[in-house]
Amino acid sequence: xxxxxxxxxxxLPLIDDKFILFNGLYxxxxxxxxxxxxxxxxxxxxxxxxxxxDEDVRxxxxxxxxxxxxxxxxxxLKILSRLKLHCFDRRTVxxxxxxxxxxxFRCTYCYxxxxxxxxQEWLERIMSLEQIDAVFDQMRExxxxxxxLLSCTIHGGEPFLARNIKTIRRICEHCRELxxxxxxxxxxxxxxxxxxxxxxxNIDSLLITLDGVGAKHDRRRPVAGGGSSYERIVKxxxxxxxxxxxxxxxxxxxxxxxxxxxxxxxxxxxxGFIDHPxxxxxxxxxxxxxxxxxxxxxxxxxxxEKLRELGYSEREAINHESAYSVCxxxxxxxxxxxxxxMLRAKNCGAAGNMAAVDAxxxxxxxxxxxxxxxxxxxxxxxxxxxxxxxxDLVKWRTRRVQNIEECRECPYVMQCGGGCAAQAFNRxxxxxxxxxxxxxxxxxxxxxxxxxxxxAKDQTVEMSKSWREPLSKFDEEExxxxxxxxxxxxxxxxxxxxxxxxxxxxxxxxxxxD
Length: 514
Description:
Elements: E1 4-5, E2 9-15, E3 18-23, E4 28-33, H1 34-45, H2 55-64, E5 67-68, H3 70-87, E6 92-97, H4 120-123, H5 129-144, E7 148-154, H6 165-177, E8 182-185, H7 195-200, E9 205-209, H8 215-220, H9 230-242, E10 247-253, H10 261-270, E11 279-285, H11 300-309, H12 314-320, H13 322-334, E12 354-357, E13 362-364, E14 378-381, E15 386-389, H14 392-397, H15 413-416, H16 421-428, H17 439-457, H18 468-471, H19 476-482, H20 488-495, H21 506-513
Parallel strand pairs: 6-7, 6-12, 7-8, 8-9, 9-10, 10-11
Antiparallel strand pairs: 1-5, 2-3, 3-4, 12-13, 13-14, 14-15
C-alpha cells in the first residue's frame, strides 16, 4: 500500500534552512532541509502522497512514522492509547478528598461558588470519621487487587479550617498506614493551626494562592464577612518555611492583577520566598468560565509575555507559567535521540485513575466538576466501605483522544490528551468534546525552542525516538491482540518485543517491572 503523510504531522521552523517534522502520534521529531519540508507541505495540501523525495529520506520518514498507511496509523492510535490505559491508568489510583465545602474566603473567581447557593448549613457539613474510614477501606481493597495508590490530595472548600482538624487527622492517619503521599490545597489563612500536624504526618506539599500584595490580594480573595487576609497568609507562609514545610505559591492572573505581578514578585523576594529551598511559585490564567466578568479574561500566553516583560528569561518564564511548564515538561527535560516522548491519550487523571470524594459521599472523576452533582460517577457506601459507581464512570474513563472525533486526526493528538474535560463540559455541554485553549500556540513555540537548544549541542537529525519503530515489530496477530486485550500482563508480554525498556517513559517501565 502507498505511504502518505501522517494526519498527525506538523512542520515548524528550526533554524536557517532547517525545519522540524513533528509527528504528534508517534512523538517523532526529525530535522529536515527546506526542500523536504516543502515536499511534505505540498503533499499535505494535495493527495497526501509526497513525490520527489530522496530515497534515503523517504525510508527514514517511513521508519519514523511521518509517512504511513492510513489504517495502520488509525490502529496505532488505539494501540498506544490502550497501552497506557491498561498498563498504568487502570492499575493506579489518585485519591482526592473534600472533607467540607465550607470556606472562610469568598474569592471572586471561585469555580465552586455555585455551592454557596445551598446555604450555610449545607456548607458546614463535615465528612464524618465513618465516611473517611470507608474511603480508605476502598483504598485498601484497591491495593489488595494489585492497584498502586499514587497520592492523596486534600481539597476544599478550605480543608485547613481549624474546626476540621480532627477530620484531617483521621485522613492523615490512614495515609500514613498506607504510605500514601499527601498534598493539600489551602488558602493558608488558618495554616498555623496545622503546623504540628503537617510535621507529624510529613505532608508533602501545600498549595497556597496569593494574587497580589495587601489590599490587591484582599479584593480578589476576601475573607467571608469582610476583612483582609494577605498579611496573615504571608506570616503563616514564613512560619511554615521556617519549620521546613514545603510551600507552592500560585497566583491566578486576569486583567485585574496582571500589571501587579512585578510588585508581588518583589514582595516575594523581600520576604525570602523566591530563593527559599522549600518554596516554589507559579502563575496561571483564570479560566474563562470562572472569571469574575468576561472583560477580565486573558490567557496563558499573556501571562508568559508579562513574565518576559518583567525580565524573566525564556526558560524562567516557562518554569513559572503553568501552561508552558506542563506543555513543555517532556520536551524540555527528556528530549533526546535515545528517549521516547511521553504520549498522552488523556489529559489528566479524570479520564484514568482519579476518585474525588466529597462530604456528601458523592464520587467524581474530576475535582473541577464537584459543583455539578449531575457529573457524579458514584456514591460512597459507608456500610460496605466501597465506592458504588454509576454508568457515568464509563464516560469519563473512556474520554481519550481516539474517542473524541475532533482529536483523531489532530497533529497534537497524543500531546494534549484532548484538553481539560471540565472545560470541555463548561464550553460545549459534553466531556466528549476537546478543549484546545492555547495549547497549539504554546506547543508550536515550545517545540522549536527546545529543539534549537538541542541542535546547538548536537546536530542530530533524529531528536527523539519514534513509537512507530517498536510498533512495526509486531505481527498481525499481535496487533489484533493489542487492539482487544484488557490484560496488562498480556499487553506487556507483547510489548517486550519492542526494544530497550529503559528508553521508554517511566510509567511504562514501572508497569513492566510490576
